[in-house]
Amino acid sequence: MMVRRLLFAVMILGMCTAAAHAGIFVGASVGSSGVDVQDSSVDFSESATGYKAFGGFRIMKFFAVEGGYVDFGSPEGSAGGGTDVKVSATGWDVMGVGTLPLGKHFEIFGKAGFILWDSDVDSSGSGSASDSGNDFMYGAGVAFKFGKHLAVRLEYEQFDVSDIDTVDLTSAG
Predict the structure, then answer these.
(1) CB 66 within 8 A of CB 53
(2) 116-144 pLDDT, tens per residue?
(3) Contact call for residues 19 and 25 (beta carbons, < 8 A)
(4) What does the radius of gyration of the chain's CA atoms come to, in whole angstroms?
(5) What predicted TM-score, i.e. pTM, was given to this entire model?
(6) In this structure, what DSSP letter does residue 83 have?
(7) Strand 63-71 to strand 43-60: parallel, antiparallel, or no bridges (unpaired)?
(8) What distance in Å separates the CA atoms of residue 11 and residue 76, rounded to the nearest whole number?
(9) Three-class SS of residue 104?
């Protein structure tokens, strides 16, 4: 809980000082989140609309630190055997971001870090369960810059959440 409060404070500080420091950035993205669980008794592969809000500090031309909140939406569907499942997951993440500028208006980036996540699973066969933890995450994307202070990002992120084969988010913002 203390780590979540620290991440939230860093994000708020970044948002409050965005105008005063050229290295600080904030943004939001929306896209498609996916959850896949495959084992002997469960076959669940569904998607939903997910979103995130993020902020960070670009330390130098090629490196930044970024943190944010991500909501994976609530993918729901059949998990096999007549069982309907709904998965709701959210998290706070922090990561390092390596950037490679390709000209004045285009850059590619890769990121790696950790997510502190919470999930709720509702199943028609076995009721509800909640879980939380922290796990590794990584991603990559491209940014199209429009002037000095505006950019559009397209990115893919994968979150290695325990007990779930794949949790990912493909987003634009």
Answers:
(1) no
(2) 999 888 877 777 888 888 999 999 999 99
(3) no
(4) 17
(5) 0.80
(6) -
(7) antiparallel
(8) 31
(9) coil
